[in-house]
Amino acid sequence: MGKLIKVLVDRSRDRSCAGGIARFEPDDVYRTTDNGRALGRDVLKRYHVIVISGHSQLPYSDEEAEAVVRFVEEGGGLLLAMNLGRFLRDVGGDPEGSAVNRMGGRFGVRFFLPKEVGHDHTLVRGFPEDEVELVEHELWRGLGIGYVYLSRCCGVEGPEGAKVLLRHKGTGTPVALCFGFGRGRVVAVGDTKLLDEGGPACCPLLDWLSAGAEPEDGEVPDEVPPDEAICEREGTTVHYVPFVEDRVDKSLEVLRKVLEEFNRSFGKDLSLPEVVEVVPSTMTEVSYVRGDGSWGVSLGALPSEPKLAFCVGVMLYDMFFWKVRDAFILSGLLEGTLRIYLGTKAMRALGFDDEAEEMYGEFMKWLGEDPEGRSDFARMGWWWDERRIPQGVRIWRELEEKYGHLLPKLMEEFPEDPRKGVPPVPFTELDVMVWTMSRAVGEDLFPWFAGMGVTVHPLPPKDRDSPEFGAEVRRYLDGIFRDPRKETSERLEALEGMWEMDGRKPEELASMLESEDPYEVAYSALKLARASDRRAREALRRLLKEEDEGLRALSALALVRMGEREFASLLAGLAEGQDLRFKLDAGYALRRVGHEGGGRLQVSALKEARTDVVHRGFLQVRNEVDGYLVNEVWSRFEPFHFPGNIHVSSVYVGWVGTVRQYRRKGLARETMGRVVDHPAVRGCSCKRLHTGTRNVAHALYRSYGFVDLRIYTRYWKKLEGPEMVRPLEGVVVRGYAAGDEVAMAELANDVTSEYLGVGRSRATKPPRHLVIRLAEGEGKLLGWASARVERERARIEGVYVRDVDERLGVGQVLLCALHNELLSAGAKEVEWWPPEDEFLEELLQGMGYRSERTDGVEMFGVVDLQRLLEEISPLLEARLEGSKYRG
Hints:
The chain contains 32 helices and 28 strands. The protein is of the alpha/beta class. Among the domains are: 5-224, Class I glutamine amidotransferase (GATase) domain (Rossmann fold); 323-333 and 371-459, no CATH class; 467-570, Leucine-rich Repeat Variant (Alpha Horseshoe); 713-862, Aminopeptidase, CATH 3.40.630.30.
C-alpha cells in the first residue's frame, strides 16, 4: 500500500457543502477529517491537503488565513471551490466578501460570473455543465470529462502562470485551474458539486495536491465537530455554533414570524420547536417530528433574511402538509410548486414583497426563454423533474389570483385514497389532482388546464363512490376507444382503463367474441389475448378485415405478441402509419419474434426520438420523444466494500425508469444494454443495484448478468408499554455522551468486519435527534444501538454487540432500554431491515419481533473477473495466511 493521503475538509463556515469529500472513499488511500472548528498551524501540519468549499460570508480570521498560506508555502495542497450562482441564489450579498473568495484572494484567486451568463430552472446562474470541457494536464492522468461532477459553474481567475484544468467551450473562460505556490500547490474549481459528490475526479486532484506535503506522522480523526453553545429562547432550547452567534436571534425571529403567519393562514396551531439548531449552512430543514408532538429544526444561518424566510417557508411545507405530501409528490404538480409558493409566501409575510416578486419574475423569464418551448409538465418525466417548477409556479399563481387562498380548500377536499375509483390508465395522478382542485373551487378546471397546454384526462365532477362516476368514466373511455381519429395508443389506453373497471371473468368475455359490434369483439379479444387465451385468435384474425385501421393494427400487434409470426410483416406495414408509441410497441413485438422490421421501429431509428448518453461524474442513458424524457437509466461510480474494508471498483445503477405511457416497449432493455456496454462501466470490476423481486425488471436485470445478492427481511414489533428483561450483573446501560463516537465506531467496525457491502464506520458525532443506548461493563463498551423516531414509528439504524460470553443477554438489555426510550418519544412501532446475521436474528426473535421476507433485493454482477480478483487479493491473501491449508 502507498502513502495514506490525509485531507482536512474544512466545513466550519458552511456545513451544506463538501459532504461527499468529507466522507471520501477509498478510505484506505485517502483519510479525511470533517472539520468544524477554527484553523491553525498546529492542526494543518498533520495533513497533506486542506479543502475549503462553500457559499458562506462568515470570514476566516487573519490568523486562520495566515496559517493556510504558510501551510501551502511549506508544501501543502489547497483545494478551493465555490459556486457563485448558488451563493447569489441561496445567500445573497457581495460575492467578493464570501469566505472562499477572501481566502482565494490570498493566493491570487477570484471566483466571478460574467453578466451575460443566464440561469437554469432552479435560478442558479452559471455556465451549463455540458458547455464545460476538460483541458489536458498531467494532473488528470488521462481522466476524461465524463468523470467530473459539475453543475452550473462560475469562472475562476488565478495568478500569472496558472494552468487551466476546465474551461467554458464557447468563451474559453477558466472554470478550474491549478498552480504552484511556494513549495505547495493550489487547485481552484468554480463549482462545488465535485466535492459535494466526492466522485472519481477527486482522486487525481488530491494526488497532485499532496505531492510536496510532508505532514507529521500519526492518525487523524474522522471528525473535529464544531464547538457548541446552548441558550434558551421562549421555551425553545437553542444549540448554535459560535461562528453564527450574532445570527441566532435574527434566525429565531424569522422562524417565529413565518410560523405565526402560517398558523393564521392555514388554521394551524404549531408552536415553536422544542429544539432548534442554528448552524453555518444554507439549508434549513426539519430535524425530527416525534409521536409525542415534539419537533426540532436545523436553521441554516448563512442566507440573507429574505432568503432565510423562503427556506423556512419551504421547510414548513413538510410540517404542515405531511399527511398529503406523498399524494402531492405523485401528482407531479405540487411537490416543487408548493415549496416555491410557500417559500415566497413566507417572504411576503416578513415584508419582502419585492424579493418574492423578483423570484417569480425570474421563473417566468426562464419559462419564456425555454428554447424548446416545453411547457406540458404532465409529460416531464417524473415528479422530481425540476423543469416542472416554473410552469407549476405560474399555474398556481394564476389559480390563486382567480380563486383566492386555494391550499386550505384543497387540503379539505383531498381524498384519503387518491386513486379510488380511478383507473390507472389513461388517468394520471395529475388528473386526480385537477379533479380535487375542481371540487375545492366548485368549478371544472380540466378545460382551464388543457388551455394552459397541459395534458389532462377529464374526470366527472361526481362523488367517486357513486355509480354515476364510474358510468361516466366508462362512457368517456368507450368514446375514445371507438373514435378512429384518436391515436391508436390512446385508444389502447382507454381499453386498458375499461378493463380495470370490468370484473367479468374470461368465460363471459369469450361470449362477446361473436358480437356483430366489432368494437365489442375487439374489447374482449384484446383482453383475452393479454392472457394468451387462444380463444381470442380467430376473432383477432377477423378484425384484420375491418375498415378501422387502428383496430387492424391493434389486432395484428396482439397476434404477433401471441407468437403468430405470420402476421409480423402485416404489423410492420400497419405500424408505419401509426403514432410513435404504437410504433415502439410494434417494434418491440417484432424484435421478439425475430422480424427484420423491428429494427426500424426502435428509439435509435425513429426521427421523433433520440437517445443521449451523458457521462458527467454519473452515467445517464436517456431516451427523449418530442423533446420529453420518457426513459432513463442513471448510474454512479463508487467503491464497493468486501470484508476487511477492501474496496473494489463498481458501478451502482441507482435508477431505472420509464414513463408509464412508454412501458412494455423495450426501452428499459435498450438503455440498460447501453449502460453495461459503456466503456466506463467496462472499466469496473462489478455492478450493483437494488430492486424488488416482484418488479418486472427483475428478470431484465438477470438477463444482463445480475444475480440476487441479498433479499431483505423486515423485522418489527409493537411498542405497547415499558419492557423488562433479566438484568446482567456489572452491565450498565446509558445514553450517548460527547466523545463516545470513537469507541462506538471501533466496536461497529469490529462487529461488521466480515460483512459484505459494509464500509468502515467513522467516528463522527451522531445527529442530536438519534436515540442511542450504550451498554458498558468491566470498563469497556459492550454494545450500542440507535434508532430514529419519525412521528409514531421508529426505525433502528444499527445494533452492535461485542462477542462476549453473555452476548445475547447484553443485546437484550440494550434493546429493552432502546425500546423504552423510543416509547417515551411517542413511537408505537419499531422496525428494522438488519444485515444477515444469525446473532441478530436470534436477538430480535427473542425480543418479540415478527419478521417477513420482503421483495426488496440487492443484486450484484461481475464485470471483469480478473480485475475483481486483483482488487480483493489482499483479502484472499489474508485468509490464506490464516488457513491451516498449506498446499
